[in-house]
Amino acid sequence: MKAYVREAINRLQAESREPFCAYLYDLGGIRAHVRGMRRYMPERTGLFYAIKANPDRRIIEALLPLIDGFEVASAGELLKVREVSGSVPVLFGGPGKKEAELEAAIRHNVSYIHVESLLELRRLIRLTQGRSEPVRILLRMNLRTSALPQTHITMGGRPTPFGLDEELLDEAIAVIREEGRGAVRLCGFHFHSLSNNLRAELHAEMIELYLRKAEEWMERYRLDIEIVNAGGGFGVPYDDAPPFDWALFTSLIARSEARKRLARVQLWFEPGRFLVANHGYYAAEVIDIKPSHDRYFAVLRGGTHHNRLPASWGHNHPFAVLPAERWAYPFARPEIRRGKVTLVGELCTPKDRLHADAEVELLRVGDIVVFEKSGAYCWTISHHDFLGHPHPKFYYLAEGNDHATHANMDN
Ligand SMILES: *Cc1c(COP(=O)(O)O)cnc(C)c1O
Questions:
Q1: Do both 244 and 134 map to the same domain?
Q2: How far apart are CA 125 and CA 373, in angstroms?
Q3: pLDDT tens for each residue of 42-70
Q4: Pair 267, 125 in one domain
Q5: CA spacing 20 to 30 A to 399: which of 114, 116, 278, 306?
Q6: Is the CB of 203 under 6 A from ligand 1?
Q7: Are the beta carbons of 253 and 204 closer than 8 angstroms?
Q8: Is the shortest distance between the CB of 53 and ligand 1 below 6 Å?
């Protein structure tokens, strides 16, 4: 953990009267990371942020000047982006778009709608009949291939509710040409087949496959497309695996043969996790430590109702211990020295577990456990009100200063 993050948490805990429980987002860290990513990106590529990974307004604001736009998957997410910028490009996706959402997308001037089914296509065409400008769409495709990398979460290359089965493309093109003339314009294809892929070579190969497919379809249907959106899915390791090699990935993309042939096509990426995961911290104070049947448990002020990712994926979430000296009682302070401990939350369910059998040097009641890599899919996927405990506080580290400001109490 970076020293300034450690210092900020120590200082905030010292100021806190209640047992400490907070998310800390390092906005400067996110911005430096994304600036670094952009330096490697070849020409004719674009970078969007899929806000479902973390829709915190401060993160959207921090990313706004650094990226090409945002990907949203509901009217609610769309409004979150539009509250920050009325004009930034937005891509609108999602498998269950309601008519009101499609209308909101058009009203709020999204750049492209990712169409995910034949019925959705027909609904959209009906809605947009008679407009002066056609609505620009990308078709989200689910490929019939077994050649995609296997990860924890896959949305393509197998039966899923996402996107349009490749075998339905004939029909979709016919609908666009016959019923959708003047109402929608097919501007390209969208793929988002997996999440948390750590292997840069396989990711580049997958995108080469996307590009070859797009090329094949352009020829078969005589299409003139401008965009291939290759989705997100760039991974972040939650164990000792090596991180996704962005420099290698972008160098492979720069050399892609299919991309050279598609000389007028933009290749876009819309990561969520990869932009923000490493710059979020979930810090929870140890409330109790107790032995049970030859094991030790540390109970935290917090848990999976704030950070559901480890329970959702069944993994042990990486953490660091921040020692705190404060101890207000006359009796002994429970501790574990050089031993194994399972970190659990304050909920009355055995599912409330963040890390099983962790080796610790020293962990005492009152210390803080800081779960690293908690910037993506942690707070936002959690069941915040289960059992009615107070929400964590939210703090933000701005660029070039280690001063934590306190905001977003309504989270
Ligand atoms: C969730 C999602 C993303 C972001 O995925 P990550 O794995 O966080 O990069 C991008 N595109 C679509 C369509 C998504 O549903």
A1: yes
A2: 42
A3: 999 999 999 999 999 999 999 999 999 99
A4: yes
A5: 306
A6: no
A7: yes
A8: yes
